[in-house]
Design a protein that fits this description.
The chain is mostly helical. It contains 12 helices and no strands. The N and C termini lie far apart (43 Å).
Length: 274
């Protein structure tokens, strides 16, 4: 499969790119293209041997960091990793997350799920902050908070789409709390009993959004604006799902206009004196 460097424009991340400098926008586009490609390898049924593809990209990342990338995307990764001081784990941990998807990994508790959340979302947050020029303990903290908020929102939003891929990310102890099992989700026999499960996960998600918002306070506005936009867009998506009372069979997403409104709101809430 080939990477599409413009793929971010079609995603929920798109609005966060609007206020970046050309240099940072291009670097983030490269990283997002890598993320999108890894996700497609793990999800698309047309990929004949997804594990082989992931193995290739693990080796290509190692080649890129050794200065001898063999693909166009690998060479772009080589360039941005040097320019923005991005460690290999920003790429390799994401591949591990995709491998967990291929293996159909089960998560007994939310604590077990957090390992997956870090690999597919927290590390993406850290890579984004690398490109934005935010380093140190606060970057680690914000990457976890915002990454976990976004990914738990995705789990709620995509719960039925994931079933088509034979995947359930809802922790099994949470399902059992409401009289459900993983098999009930996979067979579609859960009915409305899934609603309190999604409600409880949404409360966790909102706690992560609040924590991320607090961490962003006091940071330079021009570095935090993309993060703030991303958080508001995904939080609005969660609110839209809540408004539907978690009763849906088709994925609930924001319209382009709704995304634009959240960009405007992010600007309105920004302290440009910081």
């Amino acid at each position: 499969m080939k990477a599409d460097i413009s793929s971010y424009k079609k995603s929920s991340f798109g609005p966060a790119f609007l206020f970046l400098s050309k240099r940072r926008r291009e670097a983030l586009a490269v990283y997002y293209a890598f993320c999108r490609l890894m996700d497609d390898i793990a999800d698309e049924p047309t990929v004949q041997d997804p594990q082989k593809e992931l193995d290739f990209w693990r080796e290509e990342i190692e080649r890129a960091f050794a200065g001898r990338a063999g693909t166009a995307l690998g060479r772009d990764i080589q360039k941005i990793s040097q320019e923005f001081d991005m460690p290999q784990d920003r790429f390799l941990l994401l591949i591990e997350g995709m491998e967990a998807d291929l293996q159909g990994k089960r998560y007994a508790t939310f604590d077990e799920l957090t390992g997956y959340l870090w690999r597919v979302a927290g590390i993406v947050g850290l890579a984004t902050l690398d490109i934005l020029g935010v380093k140190g303990p606060q970057a680690q903290e914000l990457a976890q908070q915002l990454g976990f908020a976004v990914q738990t929102t995705n789990i709620i939003r995509d719960v039925y789409d994931d079933v088509l891929l034979k995947r359930v990310y809802l922790p099994e102890d949470l399902l059992q709390k409401y009289g459900l099992s993983r098999e009930d989700i996979l067979t579609g026999t859960c009915g409305e009993k899934i609603v309190p499960v999604l409600e409880e996960l949404a409360e966790r998600s909102k706690m992560f959004y609040c924590a991320a918002s607090q961490t962003m306070q006091g940071q330079p506005w021009h570095k935090m604006l993309p993060c703030r936009i991303m958080g508001l867009v995904y939080r609005a998506n969660l609110a839209k799902i809540e408004k539907a009372k978690f009763c849906f069979t088709r994925t609930i997403k924001l319209t382009k206009f709704e995304k634009l409104l959240n960009c405007i709101y992010a600007l309105f809430k920004t302290d440009f004196n910081n």
